[in-house]
Write a structure and sequence with these properties.
Number of domains: 2
CATH class of the largest domain: Alpha Beta
Strand content: 5-15%
Distance between the termini: 8 Å
Number of helices: 9
Helix content: 40-55%
Number of strands: 6
CATH topology of the largest domain: Rossmann fold
Strand order of the largest sheet: 3-2-1-4-5-6
Oligomer: single chain
CATH superfamily of the largest domain: HAD superfamily/HAD-like
CATH architecture of the largest domain: 3-Layer(aba) Sandwich
Length: 213
């Protein structure tokens, strides 16, 4: 049987970004909106959330409505002087990934410089064949289909080969529509029909391998 291609999200899939990294990014994006749109902090924070909910990424709203340069936005909102202290590394992650047969890719809505820095701190950067970041989607974040299609074309993949591992149900819905198998990393008791397997942590992947291959 053909080996699968594992397509991993990064934040809150391969590591827990909720305690330190997401709050830092949210503050940085709010500050960026304050400065460049001349808004107060509350208005900037509300607009950041609105764009994220409407478009899947604050950047998309900034580009659409304000002509924001995506490289400038991502560089200034993804600066982490204390990143080594913010990344929560699970020591078993490397061992877990080594148990999974087949090629492994990261597909993230984050910028490449950040994604690669996190993978290096997780000590798993050498296990991935590619880091497909927001720049490679032409700034069309998941769950937009165009980013998925660019990933598939770049690596000449048949979606049926792929197993998408994500914490975002919306992103998995797009993956399933393309024909990928889907793994939802989430602790909720139920899962939607487009989720093939639900786990609480990527550490459980070897245990559910037979259900995916």
């Amino acid at each position: 049987m053909m080996k699968p291609v594992w397509v991993f999200d990064l934040d809150n899939t391969l590591h827990n970004a909720t305690p330190h990294i997401f709050p830092h990014i949210n503050r940085s994006m709010t500050a960026y909106l304050q400065q460049h749109l001349e808004m107060n902090e509350q208005a900037a924070s509300e607009l950041r959330v609105h764009y994220w909910q409407r478009y899947g990424a604050t950047l998309s709203g900034m580009m659409k409505h304000h002509g924001t340069d995506p490289e400038h936005f991502l560089w200034h909102t993804h600066q982490f002087p204390a990143l080594p202290d913010m990344v929560l590394r699970e020591p078993r992650l490397r061992h877990t990934l080594l148990k999974l047969p087949g090629k492994k890719l990261v597909f993230s809505n984050a910028p490449q410089h950040y994604a690669r820095a996190v993978l290096k701190l997780l000590r798993v950067d050498d296990l991935f064949d590619d880091v497909f970041a927001i720049e490679h989607t032409h700034y069309r974040p998941k769950p937009q289909m165009s980013g998925f299609m660019r990933l598939l074309r770049k690596h000449r993949l048949n979606p049926a080969q792929c197993v998408m591992v994500e914490d975002s149900a919306e992103n998995l819905q797009a993956a399933k529509r393309l024909g990928m198998r889907t793994v939802w990393v989430d602790s909720s008791p139920r899962s939607p029909a487009y989720v093939d397997v639900k786990i609480r942590s990527v550490m459980e992947l070897p245990r559910v391998l037979s259900r995916l291959i």
